[in-house]
Amino acid sequence: MLSSAIDDAIFDAGLHAEAMAELGPQLSAVLNTQGCWIQRVNPSYGEVMTAYGFDMGSEQLYTERFYAIDPWLGKGMTLSPGKAHSLDAHIPIKSFLNGEFYTDYMRQRADYVHCMGAHFFLEGQAYALSFQRAQSVGPFEEDAEAQLDSLLPSLRRAFLTNARLQQQADHIARLELAQESAPLTILADRGFGVVWLNRAPPRDAPVRMTESGGQQRIDAGHGLGAAIRSATQGGAGQSSLLRVGRWAIEVDPVRDPPSRRPLAMIRVRDTAAEAARRVRDAATHFGLTAAEERLCASLLGGLSLQDHADLAGTMISTTRSHLKSLMAKMGVTRQAEVVSALAAMRG
């Protein structure tokens, strides 16, 4: 009988991303394996949820190059779902050792030759779990399959909980983005098609859209096309930050909640307008004078005290006096703390 500690770990993994990351070594310890790989399975890419027993470069290399030729995953997904299977019974060891997946990936990364896996479907999403052993340890027998079978109901519940919490978080995030003060936010697919946006782009924003066949598409200018492609490259999407004048364009990889397909979240921020709102909020909150408000704007814009004094046409001693009064009202003692407090104001 398996200990309650692993059940507790699985339960926590359904609720917390940090616990999900730690689930691999805990499962491996229970099942006497050297490697553990859990992923969401999609038609052309895998989304690794947790991995253990592989070097740090394995995940990205796997998702980019070897996912499509993984014989363990390919064969395992054809077997009956909801049940553990030793893949040794379906893929001869000699055939595996001579294959491209082993010679170009597994041998160099972890040198595992035995695999036991299971998969199941939850609300249209496939999940695959695989556990690996070195040749010296030996294959997975029926007792190992029985152990994994006993854990599958708890794992199913954990993954379902994880998915539903993520759906709720996505829904809340979209509600927040619908607020007037939220930046222009666009979800786009790899082909630059607009999946969702919270409002039409401002006339002077650096993001342009075209429409063809009833589909809105984002213009790829200002490096946005490369940033979208980088964010939507399967399981290894990369974030980007573009700057165009006073505008900052943040591009981050996200997943479409229903299908888990990779999308790019594009946030277009008017940094000058955000800074002005922060200064106004600070003036209201701390009771600043007009001179102190102007000093806040300069500090938030990265100007030195001397730069501010020169632009304002005042003596540096006057500017220092304004800063001293400003720090007293904010309850801080350093200029850097003033800037941090301003940056923390809701823009």
Automatic annotation (TrEMBL):
One of its GO terms (molecular function) is DNA binding. GO terms for biological process: regulation of DNA-templated transcription. It comes from the Bacteria. SMART domains: HTH_LUXR. Residues 285-342 form the HTH luxR-type domain. This is Helix-turn-helix transcriptional regulator. It comes from Sphingomonas crocodyli.
